[in-house]
Design a protein that fits this description.
- This protein is an alpha/beta fold and about 725 residues long.
- The protein has 3 domains: about 20-300, 2-enoyl-CoA Hydratase, Chain A, domain 1, CATH 3.90.226.10; about 320-505, 3-Layer(aba) Sandwich (Rossmann fold); about 515-655 and about 685-715, Orthogonal Bundle (N-(1-d-carboxylethyl)-l-norvaline Dehydrogenase, domain 2), CATH 1.10.1040.
- Helices cover about 50% and strands about 10% of the residues.
- The chain contains 30 helices and 17 strands.
- Helix 1 (about 45-60) runs parallel beside helix 3 (about 95-110).
Length: about 725
């Protein structure tokens, strides 16, 4: 059996990783098996490490005086982060994938079947294959250190735990708890893992090996291999009683069939496998698990999600520039939704931030917004009370800027008005801003170069474009102006990564990347509505495509005032294909801006028609009053294909560096379906020739705005 495949998790092999385990035999008969030599920063289950583990197990089997085995990591804060994702990426044959799973299952079982107690001393990540290995131990002891994270995140890569995870975890903790871990891919702290039943004991980091040795000696003296395990209470009834088990399965299956969850194959397969743990013999359950891994690991969803994983890792590396400043103090000007959200993100990541606005009401709302978010975290026990208080203390609010002498970062987040933003930039110099400070704008469409014109040192000016709401949206566009220096650029990238975001570097250009690609999408949606297509029909088509929300609902969320301003900027730059639809200005004139005014195309709940339907009806009357219903395929072609064309235009103009930036930017910035792997992966599968031919047909029958760029045409011929 080959070990050339993989368990599953989310890490890449460290350059310091030798790929081998390290076995130490104690004079007392207790063996210490380290999953990597001391000093290894990241442990992954590579082919070499699995073979080395197999050799060590063989050596342990030959020891007549062996009393117990303690399995641990190479040192503090590291156990096993799972498999090298490159191995997952490399498997293209489902048979090979299944064989890999069978190898891992049998190898881990072999360790667990040693005739002596096998204990785990766990600190740091114990994820994916690392946890599947630990599930074969007789006793699992974990460090209380914050680095300890327990989980099976395979579904995030479009696969299932394939080295026994679905079977062993289900039998250990029961069906409901196993499903909660496997279907969400959540990571548990040591204490939460103990309460779940995955971990037997939690001890301080300095006592981890000592406690493991105590347990080993205790078991050895009593002649027991491990504690007796039996599901009790509701865990027992929900797992072992078929009617209750069926009830759970039906409820979970219903959830998995709705929303974006319906596009992912792994969760339903995981549900069935966890059920198998209680209705099939162990060997048969493991066999089905191996086949499921083989099927999923070669599928387009897994390949797309693995592709995105590597793009996120690439984005994180942008925050490691040598010239980047480690920001300590920031000033955010503009206390609206964006400024308040950005300031809250900074406060959560240990940055002292001062939020300023001329309106006291906005500042009060900003503090209340942060308090509400912290209250939710406290209720869910994600943070402690003193941590919440410290975060609140780090966010200061004021109508007075005060002195900026100690400020590392000055960021404006006022409305999209060039005169207002230029005035803000001029004032920051007068307030004593240090010549070393980075000066940033959160503009979504305006020119960074124009804002930098009045600075003696424009190399300090950079665009840091967050998306709304900043606390949730994972992308940050880092806008490089003509004069932006590496120090400012790298600092902006480092800030984004520190805030838990993914930076994408974009050259200064109208609309930048995301809004420029979003422009034709929302414009065409408005045109379809003016032709008589209902907002519900258009939105449902896009939901069925995999978008998180439809364009009509998106317009309500963003606001028609914002859409109008961005459209004006885009139309000035690209008049041949981005003239703003009349709907935007009409909604602004009527005062129906969307959710911020109590509703737009939809009401405040987002479920029923809103006051803006009257505006839409008026536009239809101006167009002749005729109504038509476009087919789902026409809606798809008119909304998605121009977006593909615009993305490649951005690439050909040098707005971004690579197709990878297009994929990551549009998935993280506008919700392009992650399971596709990104817009360029989608375009390749759809067929560039198909897209070009459709756009040319639309250009001839509808409007010249659909005509694809030469770059896309040339790609379609290759």
């Amino acid at each position: 059996m080959s070990s050339s495949a993989v368990s599953s998790s989310t890490s890449v092999t460290s350059q310091q990783d030798t790929g081998r385990v390290h076995l130490e035999m104690g004079s007392d008969g207790i063996a210490l098996l380290r999953l990597a030599p001391a000093g290894t920063k990241v442990v992954t289950l590579t082919e070499e490490r699995l073979r080395s583990l197999e050799e060590s197990i063989g050596e342990l089997e030959s020891k007549a005086d062996l009393k117990a085995v303690i399995v641990t990591g190479p040192g503090p804060k590291m156990f096993a982060a799972g498999a090298d994702i490159k191995l997952i990426q490399g498997i293209t044959d489902p048979v090979k994938g299944a064989e890999a799973a069978e190898y891992g299952q049998s190898l881990f079982a072999k360790l667990g079947e040693l005739p002596v107690p096998v204990l785990g001393a766990i600190e740091g990540p114990c994820l994916g294959g690392g946890l599947e290995l630990a599930l074969c131990f007789d006793v699992r002891i974990a460090s209380s250190d914050g680095s300890t994270k327990i989980g099976l995140p395979e579904v995030k890569l479009g696969i299932i735990p394939g080295f026994g995870g679905t079977q062993r975890l289900s039998r250990l903790v029961g069906l409901p708890k196993a499903l909660d871990m496997i279907l969400t891919g959540k990571m548990l702290s040591a204490e939460k893992a103990r309460k779940t039943g995955v971990i037997d004991r939690v001890v301080p980091a300095e006592r981890l090996l000592e406690a493991a040795r105590e347990e080993a000696e205790k078991l050895s003296k009593t002649g027991r291999k491990g504690p007796a395990r039996k599901l009790r209470g509701m865990d027992h009834w929900m797992s072992k009683f078929p009617p209750l088990r069926g009830f759970i399965a039906k409820k979970v299956a219903k959830t998995l069939s709705r929303g974006q969850a319906r596009f992912y194959e792994a969760p339903p397969r995981a549900l069935e496998l966890c059920m198998d743990a209680f209705r099939l013999p162990a060997a048969e359950g493991l066999k089905r698990e191996a086949k499921a891994l083989g099927d999923l690991i070669v599928g387009p969803t897994s390949k797309g999600l693995v592709h995105l994983y590597f793009l996120t890792e690439r984005a994180k590396r942008l925050g490691r520039g040598e010239e980047a400043i480690d920001l300590q103090r920031a000033m955010v000007v503009g206390g609206g939704a964006m400024g308040a959200g950005i300031a809250a993100c900074m406060a959560n990541k240990s940055i002292q931030v001062r939020l300023c606005d001329v309106a006291t009401e906005n500042l009060v709302k900003a503090k209340a917004r942060l308090q509400k978010a912290l209250a939710k975290k406290l209720a869910r026990r994600r943070i402690k009370k003193h941590e919440a208080m410290a975060i609140q203390d780090r966010l200061a609010v004021s109508t007075d800027w005060g002195s900026l002498a100690q400020t590392d970062l000055f960021l404006e987040a006022v409305p999209e008005n060039m005169q207002l933003k230029a005035k803000i930039f001029e004032q920051c110099k007068a307030k004593g801003l240090s010549e070393d400070a980075i000066v940033a704008t959160n503009t979504s469409s305006l020119s960074v170069d124009e804002m930098a014109e009045n600075f003696a040192d424009p190399s300090r000016v950079v665009g840091i474009h967050f998306f709304n709401p900043p606390e949730k949206m994972p992308l940050v566009e880092i806008i490089r102006g003509k004069a932006t220096g590496d120090r400012a650029l790298q600092t902006a990238c480092k800030l984004a990564v520190r805030l838990g975001k993914f930076p994408v570097i974009v050259q200064n250009s109208p609309g930048f990347l995301v809004n420029r690609c979003l422009g034709p999408y929302i414009n065409e949606a408005a045109a379809l509505m003016a032709e008589g297509n209902s907002p519900e029909a258009i939105d449902q088509t896009m939901l069925d495509f995999g978008m998180p929300m439809g364009p009509a609902r998106l317009l309500d969320e963003v606001g028609f005032d914002v859409a109008a301003k961005v459209s004006e900027v885009l139309s000035a730059a690209y008049p041949d294909r981005m003239q703003p639809d009349p709907l935007f200005a009409a909604m602004v004139e009527a005062g129906f801006l969307g959710q911020k005014t109590g509703g737009g195309l939809y009401d405040k709940t987002g479920k029923q028609p809103g006051r803006g339907r009257a505006v839409l009806a008026g536009l239809r009357q101006l167009n002749g009053g005729e109504s038509r219903s476009a087919s789902r395929s026409e809606i798809l072609e008119r909304l998605i294909y121009p977006m593909v064309d615009e993305a490649y235009r951005c690439l050909d103009e040098g707005l971004v560096e690579s197709e990878s930036d297009l994929d990551l930017g549009l998935v993280m910035g506008m919700g392009f379906p992650p399971f596709t792997g990104g817009i360029t992966r989608y375009a390749e599968r759809e067929g560039l020739r198909t897209i070009v031919e459709s756009l040319e047909r639309l250009a001839g029958s509808k409007d010249p705005r659909f005509m694809p760029a030469n770059g896309l045409k040339e790609r379609s011929r290759s």
